[in-house]
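#data-curation
PF: Archiving a pair of folding outputs for the training set. Convention for this channel: one message per protein, sequence first, structure tokens after, nothing in between. First:
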Amino acid sequence: MKTRIKSIVIGIFIIISISVLMIASCGGEENGNGAEDILASMDIVNATNLFITKSSGSQTLSLNSDNLSNETQKLFKITDDGYIEEVKYYDEDGNEITLQYQPNAIYYVNDGYIIVIFEFGYLVRKSDGAVYSLENAGYIMQNYYFLNSSPISTDSSDNIYYLSSKLESFYMREIVKLNTQNFDNITKETYSPPTDSVWVFQIDSRGNAIYNASLPAYGGSVCRIRTADGAFYSAQIN
């Protein structure tokens, strides 16, 4: 689907589209053999912008909220030659697949990566659209309290940090570090101790973290500095 529009209309459309972004629920759809297709890439290489909006699949994109109320959310891109196209998804063999879940959020990570949230997150490499599933790395939570803080942080080595709810308890939040030096073997490290339920954090360019956390097992809260080499320094908050 391609729709040529003027730049001012693109700007209005993006603003309206961004207003529907929320963190929530990607998986694949069952193929003819009853197995689930595994997402391997998205066609975003020629995209200058990505956005999520509701669409019925018609050839015309509508900004009328009444028309959008019963439609599904889909991921679109604005191409480098000024077209709007729905983003396509592919398995590892290059076959186009349909995803079971709707996109709900897009996070800019850095010049090399974005994260797209479906049922769980996918780290997407901009250069070729390859994806890495964050299903086992934890669900991305908001980082609320630092001024202008983003849910996603990076250091000078392009490692990625975010808050995640622990699999066994939604209310226990930990800092997750993704080492992206090898995209084919991304590793996860839990950056905060298991006693701490982190609510806000900040990372500097060297990978040092400062964060505030509650201590569910002991009561109270704590402010800690976690250095890049693994040392912790704490100060009790009264």
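PF: Second:
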Amino acid sequence: MSIDKISQLVSLLLTLPMLIGCVIVVYVYFGPAWVAWRQRKWTALSAQDWLIIGIVISFIGKILDNSYWTAAWTAELYDVHSKEFLFQHGNTPNIPFRIISSMAAAWCHIKAAMVFSENSDRHVVTKCDYLICVAAGIAIMTLSVLIAYVI
């Protein structure tokens, strides 16, 4: 067996306990996140609320992304005919499962730091830090759109 096949097998074997851990995290935090989300008073959410919402978004995205790629790599390992389709179209599930969920989770965590700074004498995020984050985010999104348009 080649080193690539051994790596694929080890990766697939480790994916199951990782997915179980992610499901447990979502199970533990989903209730509090749902309560915070349903408040619809975004300015009233605490830093803890924002962190919990970000955790749930992040781990749901991780579960979906890793489930897709587990199917793709399993198909590759066992030489299933659907492997070509899964790898050719892998960019599509990456957009919502990996990229958008990570961006949303990051935004929630930045918002948590901002709320924490407003309500504390420890200033985690200053307005300058926030502007830098916004500028970097806009730059990354613009670059992504340009690259996608060119390709």
